[in-house]
Amino acid sequence: MNYPYMPKSTALWLVENTALTFEQIADFCGLHELEVKNIADAETTKVQGLNPILNGQVTREDIERCEADPSARLSLREEIVLAQKAQNKRGVGYTPKLHRQNRLGGILWIIKNYPELTDGQIARLMRSTNPTVASVRNKTHNSYSIIQIQSPIVLGLVSESALYEAVAKAKK
After folding, report:
1. Do residues 24 and 33 make contact, with C-beta atoms less than 8 angstroms apart?
2. pLDDT tens digit string along 112-150?
3. Cα–Cα distance for residue pair 156/95, rounded to 1 Å
4. Where are the alpha helices (DSSP H) in 56-171?
5. What span, in angstroms and rounded, lies between the C-alpha atoms of 52 and 13?
């Protein structure tokens, strides 16, 4: 089964902006129904909602169809499913020039939010080098004063699942 790129962010947006049931949202995002209820009940959250319509993952008509029929289920558009399959086969890919300059901000975001990760793990996740990660961690990087902290997940530099796997591995 294929799920949206950022399931929790997508679930948050669907809870806030549609009349879909928790069960429908959970099935679409690959989450447990209780996780979706928890996302809906959370007053403060670190997760930012992500519109799956703007991403082209689902159409407005499909959402309206499922809102009208609680037994109907959302599904990813075929183009997204094919793109995910191709991405999984390729592994580490090319990082566009536009996102390369944001890499330092992504590294700093990971360091601040997940300090338990080693420099090597962060370097692998962000497709960088250990000395670069170490210099950002030690605040000695040449560009440290102008780094803008940004989530590498939102920027598309690392997948949410890869980050969570690395954190789980570091906690062991």
Report:
1. no
2. 999 999 999 999 988 889 999 999 999 999 988 888 888
3. 9
4. 60-68, 78-90, 97-100, 103-113, 119-126, 130-137, 152-155, 160-171
5. 8
- The structure's pTM equals 0.51
The residue to which tokens 């975001």 are assigned: 109
Backbone angles phi, psi at 151, to 5 degrees: -65, 125
First vs last Cα of the chain: how many Å apart?
28
| Nearest C-alpha neighbor of 99 from the set 141, 159, 150 | 150
Q: Taking 70 as the threshold, does the pLDDT of residue 12 lie above it?
A: yes
Closest listed residue to residue 151, CA positions, set 35, 2, 6: 6
Q: Average of pLDDT values for 55-83?
A: 87
Chain centroid, CA 137 distance in Å: 23
Of 44, 50, 45, nearest in space to 25 by CA: 50
Q: For residue 14, give both structure tokens.
A: 């669907």
